[in-house]
Amino acid sequence: MTSITFEQFSPRLNETFEVAVGEAREPLTLTEAALIQQYDHPGKARDSFSLVFRSASQTVLPQATYALENADMGQVSVFLVPVGRDKDGVSYQAIFN
Predict the structure, then answer these.
(1) If you placed Cys at 6, which of 21, 31, 49, 58 could pair as Cys (CB 3.0 to 4.6 Å)?
(2) What's the pLDDT score for residue 2?
(3) pTM for this structure?
(4) Quick one: which of 74, 67, 76, 84 has its CA closest to 19?
(5) Residue 20 confidence (pLDDT) above 60
(6) What is the pLDDT of residues 43-64, one digit of tens each?
(7) What 3-state DSSP class applies to 85?
(8) Contact present, 21 and 61 (Cβ < 8 Å)
(9) What is the per-residue DSSP string for 15-77?
(10) CA 19 → CA 4, 28, 63, 70, distances in Å?
(11) Cβ(3)–Cβ(45) under 8 Å?
(12) What is the CA angle 35-70-77, rounded to 5?
C-alpha cells in the first residue's frame, strides 16, 4: 500500500474530488492542504498534514472512510470528518500522521 503524502495533494488546491454517496456522486473541492508537523528522523513515513474539502451540499456526510476520485490522481481512500457547515455548504477535514 502506498502512503498518501502532502506532496500529492498540495498542488491540487481548488480541484474537484468526487465521492460516491449511494448511487449519487458528490463533488468535493480541496480548499486547504497544510503541513502540521515535519519530522526529520530516519524511517519517517511522511510529514503530518491536514486536508480540508468543501461541499456545496447542505447534507452532512457522516465521518467515515470514503473513496475520493480525482481526474489526475485517480481514486484514494480518505477518512473524512465533517468540521463545519454554513449557508454555502459543508467542510470536511482529513488528518494524516
Answers:
(1) 49
(2) 64
(3) 0.89
(4) 67
(5) yes
(6) 666 678 999 999 999 999 999 9
(7) strand
(8) yes
(9) -EEEEEETTEEEEEEEEEEEEEE---STT----EEEEEEEES-SPPPPSEEEEEEETTTEEEE
(10) 17, 7, 13, 9
(11) yes
(12) 65
Strand, coil or helix: 10: helix
Residue carrying C-alpha cell 498518501:
4
In the block, cell 484514494 appears at: 76
Cell 530516519 appears where? 42
Instruction: Return phi, psi of residue 39, to 5°.
Output: -110, 140
**Contact of 8 with 17, CB cutoff 8 Å:** no
Ramachandran angles phi, psi of 9, nearest 5°: -95, -35
